[in-house]
Design goal:
The structure holds 2 protein chains of 2 kinds.
Chain A (H helix, E strand, L loop, with lengths): L1 H32 L16 H8 L1 H33 L5 H13 L2 H23 L15 H26 L3 H9 L4 H12 L1 H16 L3 H6 L11 H11 L3 H28 L4
Helix pairs in contact in A: 2-12, 3-6, 3-9, 4-6, 6-9, 9-12, 11-12
Chain B lengths: L1 H24 L5 E7 L5 H14 L3 E6 L4 H10 L6 E4 L3 H8 L17 H11 L9 E13 H6 L8 H13 L12 H13 L6 H6 L5 H4 L1 H11 L11 H9 L5 E5 L2 H8 L5 E4 L12 E11 L6 H12 L1 H11 L2 E2 L12 H9 L2 E2 L12 H11 L2 H16 L2
Keywords (chain B): Cell membrane, Lipoprotein, Membrane, Palmitate, Signal
Pfam families (chain B): SBP_bac_1 (PF01547)
Protein name (chain B): Carbohydrate ABC transporter substrate-binding protein, CUT1 family
Chain lengths: 286, 409
């Protein structure tokens, strides 16, 4: 028995040590420095909660929170609707099912930055040409250059890319449903619409929960897409919180201040994830 | 904290060990110096120069380091008290921070100081701030922020190179009437707006604005009013999608005959020529002032040479600095890098820069205003926002409040 326990410990400890050294320890350091005026180098002093108070008075930080939540909520909803639809399609008995599954997963393998630059090219060169040809006013210039529309470009890229992974999770969920359930339902005369809402959706509810939480968390931490597409612009219209923390912390010499911002944001994301889990788990079929 | 001390001890131990090895090598009189550069573009040029130096000084080896994210690397090495012997870095806010830390050698009493242009020495001094009066870096290569023009189009339209604001607007108007795009903007990338901002503000706002602003004696609302107005005037002469085109696309578009004027730094010229080798370009200082005599060229220190104050081989390091500052080396550097020289009497001969040559010869130069703004305020995005919203009063107030906010952190 004792030997067996040792074996299990040996399996767990390396990962724990690595995780602690490269993740937990720096995170704790970040929390520590958020109470100082550290610039990233040189001397520092303790300043108490000053950085935290300043974050709440920082208009730039507040507008970054506004943009990030708007973006994350819209993108999460879109991704989940689209993924469920694609998953149901790919789960049915259609031709080229395997090829299509592979195709839909492709975006997830590609690097976010590269995808971002390709879409940026399309937004800059292709879309305006189409817009001009069809006389559509808002498409005739680059939408990434318009502060009111740029966020939609980012939503489009983010959804296109992350729908792949969420589709995969929904597919896994759909494959757990026994065909007999559907047979019984059709004998009872259930229409497709009713079959989806009464059988499919309740049965994949745990997958719905995890998809909502994972997607929301990923979109709240959006960074790469924004760097590639707009760099936070035009103006500060698409500056996400991650981007603000990176910019201010590493380029602006505000390491301590942005550490405080990061700590606050960490708490916000944890709170949102817990609330989501609580609410969504309650309506799952037990 | 104990953990990091342990790490530091190990690192220190290793470096001592390595230093020990170096010492052994020094028995036959050979010294290895580390040259740290922040520009990947100049690696080949530096390699050539180093080979020449090593031939002249067989007992000194120079090891070139040009890592990506160089400024971050340098700051990290500062925390470990492990500065390179010689540094070739940009004249920006980071230079000022490092100099204030007191880690650079003070060139005040060295003879090399007499060989570099004093206006650039003053610019570097302003970055360090008034409390430190040493000379912590030598201006080596400099850059220029100017108006680039398409020679063929300018001749076709019969435009004379403008020397004051009215002439510039007249030229833009003429280009517009002829159906050309007067100025090709690339404002999708916020930083390109700063080329315009710096060009306009450089000749309109007093040099000590940042210092007075820090003391609460100046504000954007009071002193940048004219700058903001003239920015908006220039924007009227753009194309249909000013905020939809980025820097790379803009270079290509300008190279293929879109736009008469292009407001950018000298670094854009090799890119434009790469896109169209046949294009004929000219340059002039942005004449934002109504008075022609007040219009200087905005120019900054692109490469400053510094020596670590704590290096064990200061004599050898200074030898390398003297080699770099010599007329022949400086000429080779700027010819290969298409830059301008901080060394007295060394001029860029490329015909593209004919229009601004007089500025260098007569020292009619002014510094980049934004080099003195606090780095954390994100000026470029605020300026981009101003150009989109076109609300002058609100934008200038935001600039003031963001500056104060960063100062108070």
């Amino acid at each position: 028995m004792v030997k067996k326990k040792h074996a299990f410990l040996l399996m767990v400890i390396p990962a724990f040590v690595l995780f602690f050294t490269f993740h937990t320890y720096p995170a704790l350091q970040g929390i520590f420095y958020s109470f100082t005026d550290y610039k990233g180098y040189g001397n520092w002093d303790f300043v108490g909660f000053k950085n935290y108070f300043n974050v709440f008075q920082d208009g730039r930080a507040l507008s970054a929170y506004g943009f990030t939540f708007q973006f994350a909520i819209v993108a999460t909803i879109l991704v989940n609707i689209i993924s469920v639809l694609i998953a149901i399609g790919l789960n049915s008995n259609i031709k080229l099912r395997k090829t299509l599954r592979a195709t839909y997963f492709l975006p997830y393998i590609l690097s976010v930055l590269i995808v971002g630059y390709i879409f940026k090219f399309m937004f800059t060169h292709l879309l305006p040409q189409i817009g001009q040809a069809l006389n559509i006013e808002f498409l005739s210039t680059n939408i990434l250059g318009n502060p009111d529309l740029a966020w939609l470009g980012i939503v489009l890229v983010a959804v296109w890319q992350s729908a792949a992974f969420n589709t995969l999770l929904y597919l896994a969920g759909l494959s757990t449903i026994d065909d007999q359930v559907y047979e019984a339902a059709s004998i009872d005369g259930a229409k497709p619409w009713a079959r989806f809402w009464k059988i499919t959706f309740p049965l994949i509810a745990p997958f719905f929960t995890i998809n909502m939480v994972v997607a929301m968390k990923n979109f709240l931490m959006a960074f790469d897409q924004i760097v590639a597409l707009t760099g936070g612009g035009p103006g500060q219209a698409t500056e996400s919180i991650s981007l603000l923390i990176y910019r201010g912390g590493f380029q602006g010499g505000e390491f301590a201040y942005q550490s405080a911002n990061a700590v606050i944001y960490f708490i916000v994301i944890v709170a949102i994830s817990i609330i989501q889990l609580r609410v969504l788990e309650r309506r799952e079929v037990k | 904290m104990k953990f990091s001390k342990g790490l530091a001890a190990i690192t220190l131990g290793t470096s001592l060990l390595l230093a020990g090895c170096g010492g052994d090598g020094g028995a036959d009189g050979e010294v290895t110096l580390e040259l740290f550069s922040n520009k990947s573009e100049s690696v080949d040029t530096y390699k050539g120069l180093i080979a020449e130096f090593e031939e002249q000084n067989p007992d000194i080896n120079i090891k070139l380091e040009a890592p990506p994210e160089a400024e971050t690397v340098l700051k990290t090495r500062l925390t470990k008290n492990d500065l390179p012997d010689i540094m070739s870095i940009g004249g920006n806010a980071t230079y000022g921070e490092l100099a204030r830390e007191g880690v650079f050698h003070d060139f005040s009493d060295d003879e090399v100081l007499t060989n570099v242009q004093s206006s650039y020495v003053d610019m570097l001094g302003q970055l360090v701030g008034p409390e430190h009066d040493g000379v912590y870096g030598l201006p080596y290569a400099t850059n220029a922020n100017h108006v680039i023009y398409n020679k063929e189009k300018v001749e076709e339209l019969g435009i004379e190179i403008p020397t004051n604001w009215d002439e510039f607007v007249t030229a833009l108007e003429a280009a517009k009437e002829a159906g050309e795009i007067p100025i090709y903007f690339t404002l999708q990338e916020a930083w390109t707006g700063m080329s315009v901002w710096n060009g306009v503000a450089g000749n309109l706002v007093a040099d000590d604005f940042a210092e007075r602003k820090n003391n609460g004696e100046a504000s954007f609302v009071e002193e940048y009013d004219e700058v903001a107005d003239k920015m908006l005037t220039l924007l009227d002469y753009g194309h249909s999608d000013n905020f939809g085109v980025g820097y790379g696309d803009g270079n290509n578009a300008f190279a293929t005959g879109n736009g008469v004027f292009y407001i950018q730094g000298n670094w854009a010229i090799p890119e434009i020529v790469k896109a169209n080798p046949d294009i004929e370009l000219g340059t002039f200082a942005l004449p934002s002032n109504d008075n022609a005599e007040e219009n200087d060229l905005v120019s900054g220190v692109d490469v400053a040479l510094a020596v670590s104050d704590s290096t064990d081989h200061k004599e050898e390091a200074m030898k390398f600095i003297e080699f770099m500052i010599s007329q022949e080396t400086a000429q080779t550097y700027i010819e290969e890098q298409k830059a301008f020289s901080g060394v007295e009497g060394v001029f860029q001969e490329d015909p593209v820069f004919e229009g601004i040559r007089v500025n260098f010869e007569e020292g009619r130069l002014t510094s980049f205003p934004d080099h003195y703004y606090p780095a954390g305020m994100g000026t470029e995005n605020l300026v981009q926002d101003f150009l989109i919203e076109k609300n002058k009063d609100a934008a200038l107030q935001t600039l003031d409040s963001e500056w104060d906010k960063v100062q108070n952190r």
